Amino acid sequence: MKKVAVVIKDADQQYEGLRTSLGLLLEDTKVQMFVLHHEIANMDEAYSDNMEFLDEMEGERFSNNSANVEKYGFQYITLADIGAKIREADLIIPF
Fold this sequence. Notes:
Layout (H helix, E strand, L loop, with lengths): L2 E6 L5 H13 L3 E6 L9 H12 L3 E4 L2 H7 L2 E2 L2 H10 L2 E4 L1
Helix pairs in contact: 1-2
């Protein structure tokens, strides 16, 4: 099974990054989504539902922003740990 890291650094690309993560999960790919340096903006119902779908499909979501951990259930990750996980990925998709 391929392992993909979806790295979302641009707050304006958070929806596209999540949609990409979900699409990859449907293709039997292990997905780790990283939201870096910003809090999720506009957590509307659609985005929340899609994050629940990501969780149900066993995708992983990480953030180095503590607000995402506290408010939205992301796993906290340090920059050093992000680097280690990204090096393990077969493909990296930046946003």
